[in-house]
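Chain X:
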Amino acid sequence: SSGINAEYGGAGSVAALVTTLAAALGQMTGWLTYGSKKGSAEAMRAVLPSLHKTVDKLTPLVDADAMAFSNYLAAQRLPQQSADEVERREEALEEAVLTIVHVPLKIMEVAGECWEALDKLVTSHNTSLKADLQVAVRCLE
């Protein structure tokens, strides 16, 4: 036994969480820049709503990835004693695999939306927050 509880998702959930952290660091940088740098208010008003939406989209995907994997494991354990059971199991596995693929693709799509906002922050952020912004960018890489 590996000691790993296979009932929970792994990489997809972590990817959603790390991307959420990137957007949250971008939000923090935006809010702390807002009004502290001449001309920054307008730029931050353009950036902050999109980062907030990104966090809202990603947060449920952390759990969705874990649930998708759990559903796949449940489908694998379905009985296979009769032809009907085999057919139900195959249908459940097919549906679970589609979800397992869909959730990480959605995570990548939402993560891609974050780049534009972070790029705008690069040119207009409070320079004392440079390290925070750099960590946000690294989280998306």
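Chain Y:
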Amino acid sequence: DDRTLFTIDKTQNDISQVGIVDDTYKILVNVQNYKPEELVIKTVNNTVKVEAKHEEKASNGHSYSTQSFNQSFTLPAGVDPETVSSALSKQGVLTISAPLPKVLKSSEVGRPIPIKHM
């Protein structure tokens, strides 16, 4: 359940988490203070950029309150930026995913390296 990722430690105030789950590179971003139309997710070369901007007009109609953030995440080597997808949960957690290349998957397990005797 992705809600617990952001409620475990409120003192940390982390807005995002990055990890690998089942051969997929995942970025989780807490965007609960933003509406879907206030979010922009894009890839630039091997970087994923998340931008959010929320504007509110004060009740007197004369002033604005703006809240925004920009975050960039570098994709692991070999991950194709064209394969990046995103999903937004009802709890306000944005999940950005990309499948890892087969090369990275097998290297995670490890490869024995023979010792050469000299």
